[in-house]
Amino acid sequence: MSKEENEPLLVIGAGLGRTGTKSLKEALELLYQKPCYHMDELVNNHWDHAALWSKLFDMIDRDPEVLLPEDLIHKIFDGYSATTDYPACTAYNQLMRIYPEAKVSLAELNFMI
Predict the structure, then answer these.
(1) What InterPro entries does the record tag this protein with (predicted)?
(2) How many helices (H) and strands (E) are present in the chain, helices listed first?
């Protein structure tokens, strides 16, 4: 068990990809001096999390208001101070219940530009 395991997420990024999630990730890592969970983390460092996310998405698909198992969420975010981008952005509502003190960042892409 790492020291950070029980530390809550400080920021939940609810914006989808291509809305500045990578820049936000880098800024949050500078600010908090801890890694920020992003799709890059899943692909490059935690491919084992794909099965966990699949299980969570199955639960959300069956019941969008489901309370996700906190032990599973803590396992995914162990050592992270924040999250941006996919896959976590699609579960921001559920993450807000687990981390009620976290700030939520929502960036949108303006198609009118």
Answers:
(1) P-loop_NTPase, Sulfotransfer_4
(2) 5, 4
Contact, 82 vs 11, CB < 8 A? yes
The per-residue pLDDT for range 33-78, each reduced to its tens digit, is 999 999 999 999 999 999 999 999 999 999 999 999 999 999 999 9
Q: Using the structure block, give the residue that is written with the tokens 């491919």.
A: 47
Residue 44 in tokens: 């490059």
Partners of residue 36 on adjacent β-strands: 82
Q: Do 74 and 6 meet the contact criterion of CB atoms below 8 Å apart?
A: yes
All domains of the chain in start order, with CATH: 12-105 (3.40.50.300)
Distance between CA atoms of 79 and 3, rounded to whole angstroms?
A: 8
Question: Which residues, in sequence order, are CB contacts of 39 under 8 Å at separation 6+?
Answer: 17, 85, 86, 87
